[in-house]
Design brief:
Elements (H helix, E strand, L loop, with lengths): L9 H10 L4 H16 L5 H15 L4 H12 L3 H13 L4 H6 L4 H7 L4 H14 L4 H8 L5 H12 L2 H36 L5 H23 L2 E4 L2 E7 L7 H12 L11 H16 L17 E4 L2 E4 L1 H9 L6 H19 L26 H17 L6
């Protein structure tokens, strides 16, 4: 199909209007590129190269700033991620067959794309020797592979002592570590989005793309944001501290943990909903560039109060629960019994003794409630009490 005969889908026309791209031929060329990108499906090694080639072709049609906006709006790709794939296509072409044979992941190739040729060859040789090429392997191989200027600067940095030197190391780790964490999450997000675009999410295929990377991202998050503490009384076994329970970053951490454990993923039927409604919103919140991004999940835990290791309903949640309870509930029976007993006691003592009708604002849930007395038994108890009060000697002041 030639560009002149290509019909632009109406659903995408508004993207080009917002970007100010009015030229019909240019629109057609960009749409063909977008269609090729969408058709690639999940990101195998070969498809990563093809994606980079399509992006390179599209980038040649637009100025840099406009290309970044187009690729984000039309292809749902962050500009940083798009450029990483473009670097793979541009810089790793001569190693393409070797990397395909190793089934190198996109993240592995992102690291290799800017490495010296001798380090790329070392990484490939390592992968061939061990049967696979992991991100950690590549990082280790590239550790001393920077140019002389950078190597000298890092050498000076690691030789600086005292608190000042330590702060400098921490600053470098924070800067570079955050960049790597964000990039890894972007790759995971994109892989999930591509999987959701298919007619059926192939669980095993998606796991191959994101499982290991999710584990890496989780370790990066804990390394960047958590401290170290002794493990209970075993002070010889320190561990990372935990994010406060049920906080947003705790949910991010738990989401990455679950993504990194294929065996505990939801079943195939529930998988798309979990990915779309829970995983994607949480991961996108974690790398949002907004100053105060809004938490995307419903905060159902806000209506829960924890006391003495027993979960209790807060008043507003209790009121919501009461609406769903049948009228003849245990609470209603108990209240009626208390009221009848109190009225009988008050009449028999001339108002000297009363039973409080105040109910606690927060009631603890009870696993089992003993059976209550019937109305006849309650009336019998009231009559007995009245007889005992009447036969008691009078009390005078």
């Amino acid at each position: 199909m030639s560009a002149s005969k290509f019909v632009l889908p109406a659903t995408f026309a508004h993207h080009y209007e917002k970007l100010g791209i009015a030229d019909a031929v240019l629109r057609d060329q960009l749409e063909i590129a977008a269609g090729n990108i969408a058709d690639l499906g999940r990101r195998t090694t070969e498809q990563s190269f093809l994606l980079g080639e399509h992006l390179v072709a599209a980038s040649g049609l637009l100025a840099d700033g406009l290309f970044d906006k187009w690729v984000k709006r039309r292809c749902s790709l962050a500009a940083r991620t798009a450029r990483a794939y473009m670097s793979v296509a541009r810089n790793l072409g001569e190693y393409r067959d070797d990397l395909v044979d190793l089934s190198a992941s996109p993240t592995v190739m992102f690291h290799l794309a800017h490495a010296p040729h001798d380090k790329i060859r070392d990484a490939i040789a390592h992968g061939e020797e061990h049967g696979r090429l992991r991100v950690l392997d590549v990082k280790t191989i590239l550790g001393d592979g920077d140019e002389g200027k950078v190597k000298t600067a890092r050498g000076d940095l690691h030789g600086a002592g005292g608190v000042t030197g330590l702060k400098a190391l921490i600053a470098v780790k924070t800067r570079d570590g955050v960049k790597m964490f964000v990039m890894h999450i972007e790759v995971i997000v994109q892989a999930i989005k591509v999987a959701l675009e298919q007619k059926r999410v192939i669980k095993e295929a998606l796991a191959r793309e994101v499982e290991d990377l999710a584990r890496v991202a989780r370790m990066e998050l804990e390394s960047l944001a958590q401290f170290v503490e002794p493990d209970s009384d075993l002070r010889r076994h320190p561990r990372s501290t935990q994010f406060p329970n049920k906080t947003e970053w705790a949910v991010v951490n738990e989401t990455l943990q679950k993504l990194g454990l294929f065996d505990i993923w939801p079943k195939s039927k529930e998988l798309p909903g979990w990915l779309r409604d829970e995983v994607l919103p949480v991961l996108e919140w974690a790398i949002s560039k907004e100053r105060k991004p809004k938490w995307p999940l419903a905060q159902s835990v806000e209506k829960m109060v924890v006391a003495d290791d027993v979960v209790e309903l807060a008043p507003e949640a209790e009121a919501e629960q009461d609406k769903d309870q049948p009228e003849a509930s245990v609470e209603t029976d108990l209240d009626r019994f208390t009221e009848r007993f109190g009225e009988a006691l008050e009449r028999a003592t001339g108002g000297l003794m009363v039973v409080s009708r105040e109910t606690p604002k927060v009631r603890k849930q009870v696993v089992a409630v003993p059976p209550l007395a019937t109305d006849e038994a309650a009336d019998g108890l009231n009559e007995t009490l009245q007889d005992e009060v009447a036969s008691a000697p009078a009390v005078t002041a």
